[in-house]
């Protein structure tokens, strides 16, 4: 729905950029982890996720009036990805160690992805408005983090299970914010 809103309004107003960026990095990391584990489910879902997030980022950049800061954020995360890829492929020879360290790396990014929508928490409380949060993204985050938590439990992989729990918690917090600061009570920023 966020991409539909951007296309319909030709604007990125009230749509956050950071969740798209961190989700894309997250998908690319888990894609690599899935490849190391030979887990077809991780590979397929994260390949589709990375493609969709790249599309969202391109649409956001196209409609964004402030491109420089967004491009710098993209560049910074590309540098982090390149450094991570270099580290995991050039400096770690043992595949088991590579898998464990990439799992930890992906876990940290997953947690940051789930926390990124809360970056505007002070603004939300101060303005008593949830206009800068996406309700569809909150629902999707809740369902996704819950699904991955259960999947991680089923395949006995703590690197998948543990980092998705904060996604459930932060989604519940955002649901509470939507309840507490209902759309009809919005005040301008």
UniProtKB/TrEMBL annotation:
Q: Which UniProt keywords apply?
A: Cell membrane, Golgi apparatus, Membrane, Repeat, Sugar transport, Transmembrane, Transmembrane helix, Transport
Instruction: List the GO cellular component terms.
Output: Golgi membrane; plasma membrane
| MF annotations from Gene Ontology | sugar transmembrane transporter activity
- Topology versus the membrane, per the UniProt entry? Multi-pass membrane protein
Signal peptide bounds: none
Task: Tell whether Transport is among the UniProt keywords.
Answer: yes
Q: Which chain regions cross the lipid bilayer?
A: 41-63, 70-88, 100-121, 133-153, 159-181
Pfam families given in the database record? MtN3_slv
Q: What is its main location?
A: membrane
Localisation: Cell membrane; Golgi apparatus membrane
Q: What does this protein do?
A: Mediates sugar transport across membranes.
Similarity comment: family membership:
Belongs to the SWEET sugar transporter family.
- The protein here is known as Sugar transporter SWEET1
Upper classification of the organism: Eukaryota, Metazoa, Chordata, Craniata, Vertebrata
């Amino acid at each position: 729905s966020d991409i539909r809103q951007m296309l319909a309004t030709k604007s990125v107003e009230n749509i956050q950029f950071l969740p798209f960026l961190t989700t894309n990095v997250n998908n690319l990391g888990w894609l690599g982890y899935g490849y190391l584990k030979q887990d077809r489910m991780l590979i397929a879902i994260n390949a589709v996720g990375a493609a969709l997030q790249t599309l969202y980022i391109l649409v956001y950049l196209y409609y964004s009036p402030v491109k420089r800061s967004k491009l710098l954020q993209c560049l910074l995360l590309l540098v982090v990805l390149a450094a991570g890829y270099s580290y995991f492929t050039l400096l770690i020879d043992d595949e088991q160690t590579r898998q464990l360290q990439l799992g930890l790396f992906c876990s940290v990014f997953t947690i940051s992805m789930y926390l990124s929508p809360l970056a505007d928490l002070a603004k939300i409380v101060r303005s008593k408005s949830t206009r800068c949060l996406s309700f569809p993204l909150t629902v999707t985050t809740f369902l996704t983090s819950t699904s991955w938590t259960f999947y991680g439990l089923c395949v006995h992989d703590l690197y998948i299970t543990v980092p998705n729990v904060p996604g459930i918690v932060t989604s519940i917090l955002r649901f509470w914010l939507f309840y507490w600061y209902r759309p009809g009570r919005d005040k301008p920023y």
